[in-house]
Design a protein that fits this description.
This protein has 7 helices and 12 strands. By secondary structure, it is of the alpha+beta class. Helix 1 packs across helix 6 (175-192).
Length: 264
């Protein structure tokens, strides 16, 4: 058994079936989508030591070409509504925050909709995708967390925005322990979140750093400045536009003034 897989097994509270740990893959989400088309079991988890073509939201790449982070995808076959699927990335962000808090002893924040933030720096992100095959649907949720990176491990253009848990906490973080905690929190989400969504929404709102801030909303080629007011019951971002009207944002990119170098 490889080192990471052994460490995960040591930290899991109960043995976990349908868990694959790969040395290298193009993208755990892409790999999981292939497994879904091959009728892989509900609850399958895939981790990789490194990704050669990691992906993030809005078609962006996610730097994950070294064995210093958690690169994980979960395959779920859930009988839920499209509206419930729409909020899954936000729920996964809460699960990831809980896992980091268990292992690192620190409280992460969430930049709407699902950037994981610590001390003003991005330490992780989430990408959820759907798969259809012969009338059956599956959902793949990918989570990437920067764990052991040093500044030199990030591309120069990312160094002002991205960081790792170890950089910011100045202490060693076990990738095996964090991966195990993340798997357990995702399993809890899978069984608990739909029935207790109000509780998960309350935690998301508490962690969301976007509300109360001036933001820039980027949708396609358009940009506008607004004030983020609150997160609604469907995890949409309610904003006050420059003309005083209110609107709810469900997609696109939202930059928070003073975060990641954004200053309108």
């Amino acid at each position: 058994m490889e080192i990471l897989q052994r460490e995960i097994a040591e930290h899991l509270r109960m043995p976990r079936e349908n868990l694959q740990v790969l040395q290298e893959v193009d993208s755990t989400n892409t790999y999981c989508k292939t497994l879904a088309l091959q009728d892989a079991a509900d609850g399958t988890i895939v981790l990789a030591e490194r990704q050669t073509a990691g992906r993030g939201r809005l078609g962006r790449s996610f730097q994950s070409d070294n064995p210093m982070g958690i690169y994980l995808s979960a395959l779920w076959r859930m009988d839920v509504t499209p509206q419930q699927l729409m909020v899954l990335p936000a729920l996964a962000a809460v699960a990831a925050c809980r896992a980091v808090e268990r292992v690192g002893g620190c409280a992460l924040e969430i930049k709407w909709p699902n950037d994981l933030v610590l001390h003003g720096r991005k330490v992780g992100g989430i990408l959820t995708e759907s798969v259809w095959n012969s009338g059956k649907s599956a959902t793949v949720t990918g989570i990437g967390i920067n764990v052991c990176h040093g500044t030199e491990d990030f591309a120069p253009e990312l160094r002002g925005m991205a960081a790792s848990l170890q950089m910011l906490l100045e202490k060693e973080i076990s990738r095996g322990a964090l991966a195990a905690a993340l798997i357990e929190e995702l399993d809890l989400l899978r069984t608990d979140a739909w029935a207790e969504q109000a509780q998960w929404l309350a935690e998301y709102r508490r962690r969301c750093l976007t509300t109360g801030k001036e933001v820039q909303i980027i949708t396609g080629d358009t940009r506008r400045v607004a004030t983020a007011l609150e997160v609604d019951e469907n995890f949409g971002l309610v904003v006050r536009e420059s003309d005083g009207t209110q609107n709810t944002v469900y997609a696109g990119e939202v930059s928070v003034r003073g975060l990641y170098g954004y200053a309108p």
